[in-house]
Design goal:
Blueprint lengths: L1 E5 L4 H12 L3 E8 L17 H14 L3 E5 L1 H17 L6 H20 L4 E3 L4 E5 L4 E5 L16 H5 L1 E2 L7 H11 L20 H9 L4 E5 L4 E5 L26 E6 L4 E5 L6 E11 L8 E6 L7 E8 L2 E10 L7 E6 L2 E11 L1
Parallel strand pairs: 1-2, 1-4, 2-3, 4-7, 8-11
Antiparallel strand pairs: 5-6, 6-17, 8-9, 10-11, 12-15, 12-17, 13-14, 13-16, 14-15, 16-17
EC number: 2.8.1.13
Function: Catalyzes the 2-thiolation of uridine at the wobble position (U34) of tRNA, leading to the formation of s(2)U34.
GO molecular function: ATP binding; tRNA binding; tRNA-uridine 2-sulfurtransferase activity
Amino acid sequence: MRVLAAMSGGVDSAVAAARMVAQGHEVTGVHLALSKNPQSYRTGARGCCSIEDSHDARRAADVLDIPFYVWDFAEEFQEQVVDDFVAEYRAGRTPNPCLRCNEKIKFAAVLDRGIALGFDAVATGHYARVVDNGSEVELHRAVDPDKDQSYVLGVLNQTQLRHSLFPLADTPKTQVREEAARLGLSVAKKPDSHDICFIPDGDTQGFLSRYLGTDEGDIVDADGVKLGIHHGSHNFTVGQRKGLDLKIPAPDGNPRYVLKIEPVNNTVVVGSREQLAVSILRGIRPTWTQHPVEGPWRGQAQYRAHGTPVDATISLQAGELVVELDEPATGIAPGQSVVVFDGDRVVGSATLAESH
């Protein structure tokens, strides 16, 4: 099988490529150039997509003795990920750029180009499992729960999954590093990436302010009483407690939290933790790993990349995903993705439009 190994420059993708070589596949490594000016992206080991990463990916390909190419996806990345990130914050929502990158770049644009060039599949270092049930393929959680990335892959459809390989599905991260060391890969001890790659200094608020400005607005309570001012509603997200800098304490002395962001009038609404609690989530633009499930059906919902899945009743109503949580949850913001599971099998995902 001709396999295109997406090599980010980290240990996971390097070992994934090595396993494809060991299995006898015809493997070609590819690294994605996601910035027209690479110096503007993160350097060092804090994030991904840095100049160092491209060098590390090439060195790994050399060790594995496979062809290696760099593909320029800077324009697509800017439009589909960076511009979308800014637009979502402008609208008062909280996006997940890594999930968006998986959906629009790594498993859409790259896969499309790879198939057009005659490759059979794309292999990545993601921690998730693809299971062939005979009629369809299913996306499942990885064996290592601490590294499981099924949440950020919940946007993939059946066609994409059929051409996706996740060689690390059954391996704990500690074993992956040990394997990299045995293979002589220099990335064996390279730290994992955690930050947003297109924000070089890690200052998300500063990055957004350069795009969206620092217009002063009101911070009010649920009754509309002004409690303070802010310098850009994009600096806040639902559930946030720190950074409000309110001079007027709550009557009960308890902390206040961001309940809602109203970008139209540049207002941030705050209230008690109890007012944050929601039990019904409505998601738009649902995607399905297999086929749409009308429901209602019993499953689990996860609304953060490293969050704990919670039991829920799930249904598809008028083209929207409706999730009724068994227990109220807090800190759920519009723009986040909700991914629904049946046990450890991913069923689908949607972008949260509202909760109540």
